[in-house]
Predict the structure.
Amino acid sequence: MSNDEINIEVEGFDGSVGGSSEQIEKRKEIIDESDEDEVDDPLKPEMNEDSLITLENIYEDRMVFDPYDNIHENGKLNFATKNNKNYLKIFSITWNMMGLSSPNEEYLLSFIPTNNYHIYCFATQECERSIGTSVIIESKAKWEKTLNSIMGDSYIQLESCTLVAIHLIIFVRKELLTQISNVRTCSVPTGLYNQIGNKGGVSISFKLGKRKFVFINNHLPAHQENVKERNESVKRIIDSIDYEGKIQQQPSKTKVNPAVSQSNFTLFKRADRPDILKKNNFVFYMGDLNYRINGNRKVVDKVLKMNDLKVLQLNDQLILERKKGTVDLKHFSEGEIIFPPTYKFEKNSNQYDLSKKQRIPAWTDRILFKPSKKGKIHLVDYNFFPQVKYSDHRPVYALFLVDCPGVILETTSQEPNASTSQVCLVQ
């Protein structure tokens, strides 16, 4: 970022952090650990073609472990005949925006299917500004204003939550607002000494009818070799997310109905608060999780040219860590990955990283979900938006139908497209 850009950003700052321009610049350099700034680790063992698992030497193990084995197939849902009146339709998207300014409304409307779902969840990382600048100016007002505009009059911003450059915002259809209660937000920094929010997670939770929903947006540690650090961050975020704890005295600053909003930014020990994974909650865990593909660039490029996504999935760090039980996501499910790696692209291009660093393509951007003990989730579709070349990440989306008895649901403009969707039933 140039000095001119820094001066423009700092102009509107209220001075609560303080310091000269030199001090501000130094502070930004320490904190601004974007995925863009990855460096090679000279101590990391060199990866070669032999380190990449192939179908030939893993085939039998594949039959023992299916990374999607906790997703129960239910065949194709017939949206024309199935009674959907108690099924809540949810659209969720995760997108690392590379610290760029918010795109305009026309651009967003070219790929976001507005007015089709009851709940919209937008999870972004490096949103609106770089991580370093967001430490000083955290506001995501422009992004929120743009989203409010494209959502239109049929929806209301339920709540938003920001941690430096990590941002989460939920929209609901207006007729649902009177049926929603206990809206809370929580932020969990996992950066330097677990105090700095350059990495971490934010959540929005609420009760709708008889069901509790928890949406969590994460930006986990970068770099190929930092698997353990990512696993530790996941555990800290899940252990620290609070949705029934003490209430912050200050009212929410968002447009949410104050009657249902309760903001919470206090971390609680496990013994002091309910466990979101064991209660009757629907939990959606998404973001730039930053798990990579084991191998080297030459071999991964070769496999990509063969369009053999299964080989890459067998080397995907998140799938491998879930298999080993070393990441605290055993209660979650993930749809089958039918799209190519979503990172790292050249901007406005379909080419993966052409820089000297030659980053290995990876599925850094993911959406996982956990059903309620008493409720079901139908995963309708899990895919990416290939046409969105705005940043070095491609946005990933998931569409859900959620069992939600006791809630009066108005019919939205159209049903999810069953003819092109993967449908899974989790219960």
The domain at 32-426 is CATH 3.60.10.10 (Deoxyribonuclease I; Chain A). The chain has ten helices and 14 strands. The first strand starts at residue 72 and ends at 73. The mean pLDDT is 78.
